[in-house]
Amino acid sequence: MLGRSCSISIEIHDFSGPRRDTIRLGTSPNCIHWLRTSVTATPQPLFYVPDD
């Protein structure tokens, strides 16, 4: 719903298994990234805060 209403894609970087997968939901060039490190824990958002 967030992706459709704000015209963004959601990309999940999944490090919970033996393979490192990237799952992209949507086709918009603007993207929010999430990191998944465990199958039991919820994915965490990845933020970039510039130094300026």
Briefly say what this structure is:
The protein contains one helix and four strands, in the order H-E-E-E-E. The protein is mainly β and 52 residues long. It has one domain (2-38).
Query: What string gives the helices and strands in order?
Result: HEEEE
Helix % is: under 10%
- The shape is globular
Domains counted in the coordinates: how many? 1
Q: What amount of the residues lies in strands?
A: 35-45%
| Contiguous helical run count | 1
Question: What strand order characterises the main sheet?
Answer: 2-1-3-4
- Tell me the Rg in angstroms: 12 Å
What this model shows, in words?
This protein is mainly β and 52 residues long. It has one domain. Helices cover 10% and strands 37% of the residues. The chain has a four-stranded mixed sheet, with no helix packed on it. Strand 1 (9-14) and strand 2 (21-25) form a beta hairpin. The longest helix is centred in the N-terminal third of the chain and has 5 residues, at 2-6. The model has no long low-confidence stretch (mean pLDDT 83).
List the helices and strands and how they pair.
Layout: H1 2-6, E1 9-14, E2 21-25, E3 31-36, E4 44-45
Parallel strand pairs: 1-3
Antiparallel strand pairs: 1-2, 3-4
Give the key terms.
52 residues, 4-stranded mixed sheet, single chain, 10% helix, mainly beta
